């Protein structure tokens, strides 16, 4: 074995390990100081001021994180834009956050959502409302982790989880699974019990999901093949209406639900790439049938946006999401045949 792990000399490696050890002694204390819960009315701190290093981690993050969360108004941030559960170095798993007057509302919890929120400058202890569209693992894998990590970062106020039935069981099992860590942090760090902080609101049909002083959220059922229920969400704030399609096959009633919205964030799949991909797998007919019955093509998404009359169509939840050969223009071209408004080909951490 080389004595230069990760391309560094052994001495460098030891120095880094020791440094990391010393600063990690009470990591939550440092994080809690940096992430003091944003009160509901507290203006968000520009992330660059709090953590200039994070802003220069990647070119994309630098340009996105330069935008502070406004104390007034509605800001949409795409946290992860890849469809499907397989990790990719191109795009993170599905998740979005709507920041309304500085207060975050999270939609879906794909793997890495806590990290993506942190990169977007959202303070985890300030989380209060989290919405799930459906129970596919690319959307719910980190639901428990998000609440748990927010708690470990200093969350001590209630969090509401909204979505399809079974969330209660998932959270109860998650809390049970993490009993050792939870008890240690309560005893040794003075954390409050986690489970009583979590309020769960399960529903299986269209409804007014929640309404507070900033936003009204309604749901509709979409058609995601065998996953039922699967929801789209409509968020109406004082200055903007944003609709999230969730995962759905081509479903014209969604256009009615999204009628007149400023922004429609819609899932999308690129059929030519999938047909090419199918030549390389054994179960191609079954898989292609599943994809077509579950998702919306680049052409169909343009039809939905046009029928809804939205101002801006944001393409996200890309299937396939790990193929760099598919350019932004290839994603948008078919939709543009039908939709004359603005089309944004979503990127992780993009602020809209
Ligand atoms: Zn999905
Ligand atoms: Zn799905």
Summary tags:
352 residues, alpha/beta, Metallo-beta-lactamase, Chain A, 7-stranded mixed sheet, globular, disordered N terminus, binds zinc ion
**Major sheet characteristics:** 7 strands, mixed
Contiguous runs where pLDDT drops below 50 for at least 5 residues: 1-64
Shape: globular
Q: Structural class from helices and strands?
A: alpha/beta
- End-to-end Cα distance, whole Å, is 48 Å
Relative helix content: 25-40%
- Portion in beta strands: 15-25%
CATH architecture: 4-Layer Sandwich
Q: So what's the CATH class? A: Alpha Beta
Bound molecules: zinc ion
Number of domains: 1
The whole-angstrom Rg is: 21 Å
Whole-number mean pLDDT: 85
Strand order, main sheet: write it out.
6-5-4-3-2-1-14
List the total number of helices: 15
CATH topology: Metallo-beta-lactamase, Chain A
Order of helices and strands: HHHHHEEEHEHHEHHEEEEEHEHHHEHEE
What is the CATH superfamily?
Ribonuclease Z/Hydroxyacylglutathione hydrolase-like
Pfam families: Lactamase_B_2 (PF12706)
GO molecular function, one term: 3'-tRNA processing endoribonuclease activity
Biased composition (Low complexity): 37-62
Keywords: Hydrolase
């Amino acid at each position: 074995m080389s004595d230069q792990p990760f391309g560094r000399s052994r001495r460098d490696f030891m120095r880094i390990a020791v440094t990391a050890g010393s600063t990690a002694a009470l990591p939550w204390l440092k994080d809690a100081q940096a992430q003091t819960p944003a009160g509901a009315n507290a203006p968000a701190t520009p992330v660059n001021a709090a953590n200039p290093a994070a802003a220069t981690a990647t070119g994309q993050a630098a340009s996105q994180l330069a935008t502070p969360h406004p104390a007034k108004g509605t800001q949409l941030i795409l946290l992860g834009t890849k469809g499907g559960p397989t990790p990719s170095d191109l795009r993170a798993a599905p998740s979005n956050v709507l920041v309304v007057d500085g207060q975050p509302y999270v939609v879906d919890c794909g793997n890495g959502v806590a990290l993506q929120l942190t990169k977007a400058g959202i303070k985890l202890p300030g989380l209060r409302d989290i919405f799930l569209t459906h129970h596919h693992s690319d959307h719910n894998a980190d639901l428990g982790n998000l609440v748990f990590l927010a708690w470990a970062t200093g969350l001590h106020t209630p969090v509401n989880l909204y979505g399809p039935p079974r969330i209660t069981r998932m959270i109860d099992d998650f809390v049970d699974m993490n009993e050792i860590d939870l008890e240690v942090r309560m005893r040794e760090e003075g954390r409050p019990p986690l489970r009583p902080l979590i309020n769960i609101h399960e529903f299986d049909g269209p409804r007014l999901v929640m309404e507070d002083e900033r936003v009204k959220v309604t749901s509709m059922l979409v058609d995601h093949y065998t996953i039922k229920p699967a929801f789209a969400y409509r968020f109406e704030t004082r200055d903007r209406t944003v609709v999230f399609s969730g995962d759905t096959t081509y479903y014209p009633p969604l256009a009615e639900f999204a009628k007149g919205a400023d922004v429609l964030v819609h899932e999308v799949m690129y059929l030519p790439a999938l047909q090419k991909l199918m030549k390389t797998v054994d179960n191609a007919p079954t898989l292609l049938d599943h994809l077509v019955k579950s998702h919306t093509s680049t052409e169909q998404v343009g039809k939905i946006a046009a029928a809804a009359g939205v101002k801006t169509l944001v393409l996200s939840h890309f299937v396939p999401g790990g193929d760099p050969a598919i350019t932004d223009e290839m994603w948008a071209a078919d939709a543009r045949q039908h939709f004359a408004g603005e089309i944004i080909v979503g990127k992780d951490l993009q602020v809209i």
